[in-house]
User: Fold this.
Amino acid sequence: MSANARLDSPSYHENITPILDVLRDAFAGLSGHALEVGSGAGQHVVDFARAFPDITWWPTDVDPHHLNSIAAWRESASLPNLQAPVRLDAGQADWGLGQSDRPPADGFAVMVCINVTHISPWATTEGLMKGAGHYLIPGGLLYLYGPYSRDRTHTAPSNQRFDQYLRTQNPEWGVRDIADIETLGREHGLSLQSVIDMPVNNFSIILERMPADRA
Assistant:
């Protein structure tokens, strides 16, 4: 894989340090498998694999250019706990897990999704929550990062402008409200654990897969 395939995401350089600060607390002591939905250029997942060597990381994306970039960053990093990227569309009913050369279907300790929910149809977020409710082990964590509104109100004028811009690009896109994330998660057995203010008017949202007797 050519190094030229490695894409460079400006947002990665802005957010990787604060994200890792949150995840070091949230993922402390965890082991097992982690699925990243929408890995983009692939820079985040390399740092995640480096920071959490006891977790096996599975990057995914729907864009072939992103998949090539992830593969190139993975080859450059040469980390034993970072798997090859696979195509996955969270909005599809069947994620194809457990098949040859794809992530396992017997449960993840962690799922991560960064800067996806606002630049995809709501059906993608619905699929993500359904998948997390199905594939996370009890007590497993779903981590979301990006811009969100609170109580139907944008947290900054820039987020309101960004939301309007997104909807002009695609009417199915837009900044989501945290209450809708919490409600949708609860429908799939996920409990909202924390909402953390992040730089540049973003949020970290952590949901936990509840045991079957509590879901």
Q: What stands out?
A: The CA atoms of residues 114 and 145 lie 5 Å apart. DSSP finds six helices and nine strands in the chain.
